[in-house]
Amino acid sequence: MGVYITQLSFNYLHNPVNWHNCVVGIFHDEQLPTIPLIQAMANTQWTTRRDIKIFKTSFYYIFECMHAMDKEAILHQHTVVFDGKLITFRKCDWYTVLSHLNFTTMRLWIRIFGLPLGFLNAQ
Question: How far apart are CA 32 and CA 118, in angstroms?
């Protein structure tokens, strides 16, 4: 019995990746969306300066941004929702070991209605 290697959805040899402009994300759900669905949602629902290529390795999703400001915008969002599923983003580069990244925290914006006035403040 040998080492289990997952098949990549992207051929790194024929399509070199600019790791300097990449962001890695992980979905916090058991049912993972497909690459075409994520790509379609990114193309139609995000405002981008240039294209973003999305590919998958194991259960990590790599977002290769063709413009550096798109990378920064994704990292600024930190956590977004795709098709009702939360995905958290982290920086990555050529030397990143994906299994060493910490995806246990995420930022969420919530809206609460009917909160008593004593709990409302400027912060």
Answer: 41
pLDDT tens digits, one per residue of 32-75: 888 999 999 888 888 889 999 999 988 899 999 999 999 999 99
CA-to-CA distance for 87 and 106, rounded, in angstroms? 9
Query: Per the CATH hierarchy, to which homologous superfamily does domain 19-95+105-119 belong?
Result: RRM (RNA recognition motif) domain (3.30.70.330)
Domain boundaries, the chain: 19-95+105-119
Assigned token pair, 10: 């992207």
d(C-alpha 27, C-alpha 85), whole Å: 7
As a whole number of angstroms, the distance between CA 69 and CA 92 comes to 15
Spatial separation of the C-alpha atoms in residues 1 and 10, rounded to whole Å = 26
DSSP 20: G
